[in-house]
Amino acid sequence: MFNITGKFARNFTTKASSVRGNAVGGMIFLATVAITTYHLNSTTSYSDAEKEVTDVATVKKPKASPNMYKEMPKYIKKLQHTIVNELEKLEGVGGGKFVWDSWLRPEGGEGISCVLQDGNVFEKAGVNVSVVHGNLPAAMEKQMRARKKEGSVCHPHNPNAPTVHFNYRYFELRDKDDNSVDGGFFTKKSDPKAWWFGGGCDLTPSYLYEEDAKHFHQVIKQECDKNDLSYYPKFKKWCDEYFYIPHRQEARGVGGIFFDDLEDKDSDIIFKFVQDCGNSFLRSYIPIMQKRKDMPFTEEMKIWQQLRRGRYVEFNLVYDRGTKFGLATPGARIESILMSLPLTSRWQFKHEPAFHSREQEMLEVLKTPRNWI
Amino acid sequence: MFNITGKFARNFTTKASSVRGNAVGGMIFLATVAITTYHLNSTTSYSDAEKEVTDVATVKKPKASPNMYKEMPKYIKKLQHTIVNELEKLEGVGGGKFVWDSWLRPEGGEGISCVLQDGNVFEKAGVNVSVVHGNLPAAMEKQMRARKKEGSVCHPHNPNAPTVHFNYRYFELRDKDDNSVDGGFFTKKSDPKAWWFGGGCDLTPSYLYEEDAKHFHQVIKQECDKNDLSYYPKFKKWCDEYFYIPHRQEARGVGGIFFDDLEDKDSDIIFKFVQDCGNSFLRSYIPIMQKRKDMPFTEEMKIWQQLRRGRYVEFNLVYDRGTKFGLATPGARIESILMSLPLTSRWQFKHEPAFHSREQEMLEVLKTPRNWI
């Protein structure tokens, strides 16, 4: 859910460098909601980044909303409640309930992890919010890392029902002198020096239902198109590329959208897009679950689902940049980082789907990502 | 099972560099038997290594046996048969049988993977042998990588019974002109330019039985002591350090021994040590399995075992250098690389063993590795 990009690393370090130069601190702010593993998209190291000399303060940018640091958290907390409620409704009478696990970050910020385990419908589901901020550059690296610890995902029991994952996040950087902390948030005096949005959602079925993939993509495309016609094709491709398992030569699932560094329009305008995405999540996923959650299935199908969950583990532990980064961080909240892993999974030597089976059909789609619309 | 060390990378690359200089090729040879994941211990990159200028041919070494390239494969193939037979006996009447999967490497060499899945006693067990050789330096990197593909491990069903892993390997490097290939092996004309042994074995219980850990260590210590009194303390420590999961701050199991780069004595002498280790494997593991395989257990214990298997997956996917390297290799035999993963595993949010429970007892030992003897 916490996404540091190449651009971020550049801006951030450039800012940090100039800060070191004139002994003025900076503050960072990150608000994020996730049904997701979090991601870290940067391959730019700090030392590389420091070679760049562009000062972000001098780059012309679209307008930053002065109150986004309040608006985004307000929105994602509301969204978290809505989603948790709807997922619990899906669990039905006597079904699983989310456990709310809230934490405060001593250096500034808070988080709420909601996890449901071994329910009627979901094997494991999590909906997480975190809002963190901190000073720069003194504890920069440490703080940056300390923050990378969220992640969640919905893994249903029924092999006919797909796993889903989403996350949306907002980041900003301000001059330290411009702000003072008030009740866990800093109060703003000027516009942020740097800011952007990132996020996305994607679907991972064990068995292909074309209508489900189409529905999921249709809903998210509609929201993209309402905001910018270039978004869906661009972000769909980005998603296919990010959630790819090279050693299997397979996509993790049937995709969705993925974007980062979004700052090409005024922040109010992008915020509207992010809200459209967030608000459409239930509409994209719940109807699929209602159709699939009670379908009959065989033991063989359950085994196939568990093998697919194994692939999910492979992606998250081997490739997901946020997970890798988080695990390498001393003192990180490991339970939160690994929350996205399924409750159970399986590895079988040389498992090969039968010719023309539904398992083979699924594999073929994963090997050659399709356009669903 | 295939273990490239810093030293190897140095020797290897230095040799390769000098080979490029005088247009003479080199041949490498690797024989290995494993109940193990394989390991890759090098953090030295080829380019770094090339900066070193020591020519291995000029370094004084203990005597290399001229026929080790035949003796080691002969030994490990025999060992594989013995172990497979004994593990099948443990499965009992109507129990699981190993499937033999034999492969030839077009560029030179062969492998035999034996895998048993979902038997009476073992969830998943594998015993693998590979004997590979190839030319240097033309296809050096490709060949080196192509070879890193073995791995196996025994994961029992019963949570009272421990997972075990072992691997022993021999490596040598010769001048190309000194050899010609004969029936899949090269025939030798001179002594190898570089050679060494590596290997080890370790135990991973879900529940602590001190007597089991002591027995396992006692058997292996006896074999070490017969050969060199410095081996056990040194290799026991090396094992604890290698099979450590930093993000959990836990050892993977109760250890055993791990060694690499062993070339400080004549190769015949070290070969005897390796055979002592290999031959003692059944004596170290089978008695434990006989005691534990039919013990009653609860569903709760099975869940704890599955959580521990999740840790095994975490170690192998996140830290095991061979697995990481193998996964990054285009065209690698992924099924062989991931053979060491358990059939099933589990991740549960914030699972915490009850105070003074047997699960907590196990965790404490993993957090503070003990001396068992």
Characterise this structure.
- Chains A, B: Its EC number is 1.3.3.3.
- Chains A, B: The chain crosses the membrane at residues 21-40.
- Chains A, B: It comes from Clydaea vesicula.
- The structure is a homodimer of 373-residue chains.
- Chain A is an alpha+beta fold and 373 residues long.
- Chain A has one domain (6-367): oxygen-dependent coproporphyrinogen oxidase (3-Layer(aba) Sandwich).
- Chain A has 11 helices and 13 strands.
- The longest helix of chain A is centred in the C-terminal third of the chain and has 26 residues, at 267-292.
- Chain A is globular.
- At the A-B interface, helix 8, helix 10 and strand 13 of A face helix 8, helix 10 and strand 13 of B.
- Strand 13 of chain A pairs antiparallel with strand 13 (344-346) of chain B, so a sheet runs across the interface.
Core attributes:
8-stranded antiparallel beta sheet, 13 strands, oxygen-dependent coproporphyrinogen oxidase, 373 residues, disordered N terminus, globular, alpha+beta, homodimer, two-stranded antiparallel sheet
**Protein chain pair with the most extensive contact, residues per chain:** A-B, 33 and 33 residues
Proportion in β-strands of chain A: 15-25%
The N- and C-terminal alpha carbons of chain A lie at a distance of 27 Å
Q: Write down the oligomeric state.
A: homodimer
Given this structure, which CATH class of chain A is correct? Alpha Beta
How many structural domains of chain A? 1
The low-confidence runs of chain A, each spanning 5 or more residues with pLDDT under 50, are: 1-26, 35-59, 137-151
CATH superfamily of chain A: Coproporphyrinogen III oxidase, aerobic
Overall strand count of chain A:
13
Judged by helices, strands and strand pairing, the structural class of chain A is alpha+beta
> What CATH architecture of chain A do you see?
3-Layer(aba) Sandwich
- Gross morphology of chain A is globular
Helical amount of chain A? 40-55%
* Overall pLDDT metric of chain A: 79
CATH topology of chain A: oxygen-dependent coproporphyrinogen oxidase
Main β-sheet description of chain A: 8 strands, antiparallel
Radius of gyration of chain A: 21 Å
Tally of helical segments of chain A: 11
N to C succession of SSEs of chain A? HEHHEEEHEEEEEHHEEEHHHHEH
